[in-house]
């Protein structure tokens, strides 16, 4: 849903992931895992062999959101302009994959979930890191447009990494 809210910059990824979400929901309803086509995720670190739960873990709000997603995916499906493949980086890796084409693991940024390369902010001895540029944007947002949600995220990070919540870059 976050990709969808970003608009055209992540519309392709939103379409692929939300379409897969709908397939998963249908497979759970039908209890038919063979109905899920995971081939689009070949070459990524997204699990393809999964056990389906007996029921979906959704609330009424999520059921309403499901219908909204279904309508959006159908509308996007009618457009011929959207590419139906995953976005890859310049090295040929799925942009969100934590393993590159050579099998080398890259730690996830604790803000974006994207793999980190090079310049990172470390959080004590927790092993958790953030991409330095992403962290800088997050901190600048906290300083200039502070919200309770951002403060909550900072508190969560402090607890998760067992460090003090700091607005340092």
Outline the fold blueprint.
Elements: H1 2-5, H2 11-30, H3 60-78, E1 120-122, E2 129-131, H4 132-144, H5 148-161
Antiparallel strand pairs: 1-2
Helix pairs in contact: 2-3
Word description of this protein:
By secondary structure, the protein is mainly alpha-helical. It folds into 2 domains: 2-78, no CATH class; 106-169, no CATH class. It has 5 helices and 2 strands; from the N terminus they run H-H-H-E-E-H-H. The chain has helices at residues 2-5, 11-30, 60-78, 132-144, 148-161, and strands at 120-122, 129-131. It has a two-stranded antiparallel ribbon with strand order 1-2. A hairpin with a 6-residue loop joins strand 1 (120-122) and strand 2 (129-131). Helix 2 (11-30) crosses helix 3 (60-78). The longest helix is centred in the N-terminal third of the chain and has 20 residues, at 11-30. The chain is globular and about 50 Å long. The protein starts with a helix and ends in an 8-residue tail after the last helix. The model has no long low-confidence stretch (mean pLDDT 85).
